Structures are given as structure tokens and as C-alpha cells.
Amino acid sequence: MKQQKEALRVLEEALKELESPKGSVLSATQKLSRAAGIIGNDDVKIWCAIQLGDSNYTIPLNRFLTILNDTNNNAEPNLQAITEVVNELNSLQLKPDTHYSSEELAAKSAESGGGYKNIGFIEERYADLVRTKRGNDGTYYKNNLNNHINYVRKKAHEFASALFNQLKFSGTTSNCFDLLKNAVDDRLLDLNPPLAEQLMLAFKAVSSKKDEEWSQALTTCRRLLENLADELFPPTDNTQKGRPLGQTHYVNRLWAFMDASIESASNKDLAKTHVDFLGAWIEKINKLSNKGVHAEVGQLEAVKAVFHTYLALADILEYLDSSQTSKGKPDINTVTIDELEALLDVPRKVAKEIVKARIKEGHIDLDALSQVDGVGPKTLMKAKELFFPE
Known about the structure:
2 strands, two-stranded antiparallel sheet, 390 residues, mainly alpha
């Protein structure tokens, strides 16, 4: 936390320099480099080192730029030389989209604009030409120097702003979502623990590196909504406001449930719109997935599906009767929260923590149970007798 505050302070100073007409780009770049070092952002730190004329980077970059210029001048490309210099840049952890992008190379290409000289030197040369009212000194040209300075100023401002926002608001989104997620998980555990397990497993799946688990998360979200519709508004041959309410029309049935349950017209419209959107969106993604359009279906789509599902459920669960529950099998890894509460004689809060633990670990045994908050020796003894007989 102390390092984060220091980095924020330095970045704020850098931004002030960059946003002031009289601010020093050299000073701002040095401060940006310091902040990047504090938070361990090597990409930005290397970019700053290039602007500050670090020869470890500027020499191979100059060589790369020379090869490109020769090629552009219709010289025969030296593939071996290009390969060697690119390998050297890679070994220095330079990235083409950050450290030698087309924009970066264009800013450094002209010697009359300073090339890969230190940005402080470039600022001094420009200030000299402005002071003496000259357009150039035979080597450096005022307009080219100014263009180079403006590029570094703009790019440094982009990096500094991104880092500042990252630090300033880090954790805000995840903490807010955790609040929503925990509330939905707890509420759904009260209503229907198997559905809650489906949702928590889907959330776990989108963090995986396996694309088959992302696809499974999408399918899980759709099935969860179908099962929730069955729980809240069983299928019927009737229609409501022109919408069929049959077995396959789970979105319509959720919509009908909210139509009957939510008193406020504005809240009702908002919640129903959210469910309409989520249902249509999940169906679209599943159709793409079934067709094998892999370019359209990936981890991001799976994450969005799970997040949207949590948001929609937050609307729905707000209006549920907390007495709704369901039953499962008499096994510690499948029993419902109600059965855990009754059989182990524990508070509902502890029963919920047990369910969360088994979802997180995929399986729960006596050792894992002993690590759950609220589970003491008496509860472990009961669990051993009920679920883990000798």
C-alpha cells in the first residue's frame, strides 16, 4: 500500500509536467520511469529508458532502424541482419507494439529530430532554436524536434494516465463484484443449492486456461437459467402478453415471474430487460459455439456470460421468498445447505461456508472441513459419524 501511494504521487507529478505548456518532458519521463519501477511495470520502464537515451536499447534500435530505412530505399533486404537484430531486441525484452512500433520508429527516424538522443538533449536543442529564432542549426530542425517532443509527451501521458488509473482504482471492480457475487451465492444457496453450485462452478471454470471449460461455463449459465425458470415459473401452455411460456421458453417464464413479483414499474422493466438481453445473448453465443465459430467464442465471452448471469440473478433473487429450498443426496459433497444445517446442527452461515469450500476445492473431506470457518471439534465429530464412517 505504501509503494502504491508513492507511485501514485510520482505519477501525479509526471502528469502535471506533461499537461503544463512549460512542463519538462525529461522530468516527466524520469518520474514515469521511477513509478514504473516501483510497481514493476518493465514495459513502461524500458520505454522510458529508450527516451532517456539508454545505449543498451538505442544502439540495437538504431541498427534496426537503419536496416528498415535501407530496405525502404529499395536496397536488397539483408534477412540475416534483420533476424539478428530482431533476436537481439527480443533478448532485451523489447516489444514491437510498445518499444519499436511504427509510430515510435517514425518519431526516431530523422536525425534532424534528434533520433534516439536523450529527450532532455532534444528539449535543449529545441529551446536553443526557439531562443535564437532559427529554424535549424545545420543538424537539428526546430519543427522536427518539436514533433519528436510532442510524440514523447503524448506517449508518456498515455502510459502515466493508464498506470495512474490502474493504481487509483485497482481492486475497486473486483471488490464490488465480490460483494455482488457473495450476495447472489448466499441467496441462491437459500433457494436452491444445486443451482448455486452450478453458478459457482461456472465462475470457477472461466478462470481456467482450457477453452473447453469456457464453453462449459456458457452452457452452465443457460442451464442454470432454465432450471431457475422451472423453479420459479413452471412451464405452461398459457401465454402472457403474447409470450409463450412452454418448456423451452425459459426467458419468457423468468420474465413472467418478475412481472408478477416486482411491484415497481421501473424496477420491473429494468429487471425484465436485463433477463431478455441475457437470454438472447447466451442463445447467440451458444449457437456460435455449436457451429464451431471459435473466433467468436472464447474466455472473454464466457466471463461476460457468467458476470451477466450474476447481474440478472441479483435482480431476480431480490424478489424471492427466502423460504424456497430444495433437497439433494445424503452425502457431504452433494447434500443441500438445509441438510448440512440440520444434520450437523450448525448455523446457516457455517453451512454456506461448507458448500462454498466444496465448490472451491471440488471435493471436501474431513481435513478440508476442519479448515472451514465455524467448524469446530463437535461439528467434525458429527460429520465423521454421519459422512465418514470407519
